[in-house]
Amino acid sequence: MTGGGHRLAVDGSKRPRVLVPRAGAERRDFTRTDAWVFDLDNTLYPAECNLFAQVDHRMGEFIAYYLGVPYAHARHLQKSYYRQFGTTLAGLMAIHKLDPTEFLDYVHDIDLSVVQEAPRLRAEITRLDGRRLIYTNGSRRHAERVAAKLGVLDLFEDICDIAACDYLPKPEAAAFQRMIQRHDVVAERAAMFEDLPINLAAPHALGMTTVLVHSSYVDHPIQEQMKSWTELPDHVHHMTLDLTEFLGAMPRNV
Q1: Tens-digit pLDDT profile for the chain (254 aa)?
Q2: Of 100, 171, 211, 232, whose CA is between 20 and 30 Å from 7?
Q3: Closest C-alpha to 39, from 150, 175, 170
Q4: Which of 183, 107, 98 shows the shortest CA–CA distance to 145?
Q5: Cα distance between residue 226 and residue 224, in whole Å
Q6: Fold of 35-49+117-249
Q7: Where in the chain does DSSP place strands (E)?
Q8: 180 near 170, Cβ under 8 Å?
Q9: Cα 228 vs. chain centroid, distance in angstroms?
Q10: Cα–Cα distances in angstroms (integers) from residue 184 to residues 34, 135, 140, 169, 215, in the given order
Q11: Using CA atoms, how far apart are residues 53 and 215, in angstroms rounded to an integer?
C-alpha cells in the first residue's frame, strides 16, 4: 500500500524511502469516512505538470504591475506575503487593500495543455463511497478548468474556493471551519488530501483523517524541512507519492 509514508531524503533511485509514523502516534483510517476532501494544485494533478509555476510567475507579474515595482521586488513581496499570511492574496488584501477578483482572474489565466486526462484517477475517485469535494485556496473557475482537464470535474459534489471562505485561506483553522459548515461535513467522518503538511494541522485537530500527497514542487519552508523528516508528524496520518495508487490500494468502506 502506498499509504504509510515516504521519507523525502532520496536514495540512489531518486525516490523517497518509506517513512513510518511515530511510535504511539494516533492512527486514523477510512472505515468511517463518508466525505472526501481534495486540495487542487499539486494534489489532484501531479506536481510534475509544473502547472503552479505558471500561477506563481503570474502572481509576480501582477504585483509588479499593481504596485509599480520591479519584478524582482514583486517576487520578494509575493513570497513574504505567502509565508506570513498563508497566501499571497491574503497579504495583498491585508496590506494593500486589493480587490481579489482581478488578481485571481489574472493569475489563473494559464496554459492547461500540460495537464493530461487521468482515467485511472477518475476510476479510483469514482470508487470512493460518499461525498467528494474540492477545497482550494484558488478560485472556483481555476478548479473547474483543471478538474475538467483531468476528466474528474463531474465526480465532485462542489468546489469550496477562497471566495466561499470569505478569502480566509488555509492553513487557518477558521478557514477549515467555514468549509465544514458550508458543506455540512462531519469532521470525524471526513478525509483531507493535501500537498502541504502545514495545511493538514487544522484538519487533524478537527478530527479528520489526513493524507499528505508528496509534491516535488518546493515553494514553502516546510517543504525544505520535510527533507530531514525521519517519521511522519502526528498531524499527518498517511502519506503517498502517488494519489491514484494510494486510492487504489486503500481499503473500501464496509
Answers
A1: 334 433 343 343 455 554 667 777 888 999 999 999 999 999 999 888 888 889 999 999 999 999 999 999 999 999 999 889 989 999 999 999 999 999 999 999 999 999 999 999 999 999 999 999 999 999 999 999 999 999 999 999 999 999 999 999 999 999 999 999 999 999 999 999 999 999 999 999 999 999 999 876 666 666 666 676 778 889 999 999 899 999 999 865 43
A2: 171
A3: 170
A4: 107
A5: 5
A6: Rossmann fold (3.40.50)
A7: 35-38, 131-135, 158-160, 190-194, 209-213, 238-240
A8: no
A9: 21
A10: 12, 14, 19, 19, 29
A11: 13
232: which strand partners?
Answer: 21
150 neighbors 115 (Cβ within 8 angstroms): yes
C-alpha cell of residue 184: 455540512
Rounded CA-CA distance 226/30 in Å is 25
| Identity of the residue numbered 231 | E
CATH class for the domain made up of 51-107: mainly alpha
C-alpha cell at 252: 473500501
The residue ranges of every structural domain in the chain are 35-49+117-249, 51-107
